Amino acid sequence: MTTSIPEKLKQTLVDLDGKGYKAYKKLQGTSWSYPPFLMKFEHVQGDSFAFPSRLSITLAMADAGFPEILFATATRRLALEDFLLRSFHQRCARSQFRSRGSGKSGVITALVPGQKILKRNAVLIKDDAMRFILFAGLPADGRKVLGKECLEMFAEILPRLWRESLLADSLDAAKIRAHIATLEDYEALQGELKKNGWAAFIGNGSLLPRASGVSDLPLAKDGVAFIAPEDFTATVSLPHKGNVAGMAIPDGVTLIVGGGFHGKSALLSAIQSAVYPHIPGDGRETVAAIESAVKIRAEDGRSARDVDISSFMDKLPLVNNTASFSTQSASGSTSQAVNIIEALECETKLLLMDEDTCATNFMVRDARMQALVHAEKEPVTALIDRIDEIVEKFGASVIMVMGGSGDYFESACHIIAMEWFQPKLVTEQARQIAKAHPTGRRKESKSPFQKVSKRRTDPGDLAFSRGRKETVIQARGVDTLSLGCAEVDAHFIEQLAETGQLEMCGWILKRLKTLLTKDGISNFAGLKEVYREIGERGIDSLTDYETGLLALPRIHEAMAILNRLRPPPKRSGIEGGQ
Question: How does strand 397-401 pair with strand 253-258?
Fold first, then answer.
């Protein structure tokens, strides 16, 4: 199949050759027929160094050649959307096109997906039609239009990419089915967690290690496949893979122990990542965790407002009231207490912790320290004295990496030891050790765990304008989100997977502001309403235009961003030390 450039567009590009770059603006808003595609210039960049111009491609699914069975359900639509976006990037990588010019001249790209299957707005299948957003750097030499190079892009390069990545007869049908099967199996596995009372499941053969500490790609070589211990193995029946054996971690408190560098943190990292499905070949396709799981850590320097941490902190020096705790710079222990309370406020059913990123004095006070610093002089109630209450009162499970202290043995329902990257169930052995070697440690909680209240942010604290711009929402990686003149540090919100999720948090909070103004509902109730609207109307219902760069975060990440927003200070105060 060939797709010819519309004659009028061809002549327009020829006429633009040699003119100033602003002449490209005459293309903005125009639509052009490339049967079976309809291409529109949604936005044209201001100069060759600016972010590439945004284009939209639409076509009927029947014209694209996809049978209805491949997008008959929401799950299959999501899988197909994800596959098509990756297909486009694969074709771009193989393209030999290299336009001369300056700045972004000749760049052709779209939202770059990671290892997870997420709801994004780069590709949308709706009402038997597909819409695809991509970006093209219109060629220029400095500030002069390179019309011939631009003509090549729109007459040959782009139409070929559309055909090769968006039409069924150019794609591998077996790989499409495998993509759909992987997502449907993951969703079935999530259902098994709920049905069986499991916090997580790790399928045999899973490859958990990643290529590096800054890469989410699987370890290319020397990776050890995960195999569940025989005495801790369960089998699930998935619609496509059939019977899959693996390690099912029941609800309750589970410890992951073992020597250094034996895979404890790799296992926990895989679990925290498994709140999302992974693509075929990732190695974590049959790993799943409770959808509401939240990674908890110490977060020195984070801000907090009006959080009741009195269950963990009492009579802090220079802090008047820990039942309504506010600070612009939390310590390690207080930040971890805040993070737990905020996760419970968000109704999490699984807390994940790794001792390497936790505050030591918040996790445990051993018998010797209790003898030296008496309880009446210690304002911190360690997590070890609250963990049973968290499970019983909130129905939340805990999975914790703990390699340096055996004081949690009594609270743990299950204890898994990692040896050379393989799990071994050591619960009974640990219990025998606990009986044979009592620590003499005393429980130090002074009162019952307090009820977690649903807070409500003052809508006036949510400001999105900057200068003449009514709305400024900008993400830098997954570390920083700019909302108007404010910046939110998201560096330690570990379950944010893509930049588009962080930016989407900003649009979610913008809509939340309207709900808080009108209804007076709590933050969490308001966010649930926003997510209901997204479910009905789609991601783009919250944005000013179809950006093509957004991905949907969980409600927990949106709440985490809201909780870290630093509004203008309304009170003064100094937090005590750790």
Answer: parallel
Residues 446, 466 within the same domain: no
Same domain, residue pair 285 and 239: yes
pLDDT value, residue 225: 95
Strands 350-354 and 144-145: unpaired
State whether 432 and 464 are in the same domain.
no
Supply φ then ψ for residue 164, to 5 degrees. Answer: -75, -25
Q: Using pLDDT thresholds of 50, 70 and 90, give the confidence band for residue 60.
A: very high
Q: Which of 42, 30, 27 is nearest to 134 (CA)?
A: 42
When divided into structural domains, the chain yields a total of: 3
Question: Taking the mean position of all CA atoms in its chain, how far away is CA 364?
Answer: 30
CB burial of residue 314 (10 Å; 0-12, 13-18, 19+): middle
Which strands make up the sheet holding 480-483, listed edge to edge? Answer: 473-476, 480-483, 486-489
Written as six digits, the tokens of 370 are: 């209790």
Task: Give CA separation, 576 vs 298, 320, 365, 383, in Å.
Answer: 16, 10, 19, 19
Token digits of residue 438: 């009592």
The pTM (predicted TM-score) of the whole model is 0.94
Beta bridge partners of 58: 38, 131
Closest of 92, 89, 100 to residue 157, by C-alpha = 92
The pLDDT mean for the chain works out to: 94
Measured between alpha carbons, how far is residue 283 from residues 177, 186, 279, 336, 495 in Å? 18, 13, 9, 31, 18
| 221 lies in the same domain as 122 | no
The pair of structure tokens assigned to 328 is: 């612009």
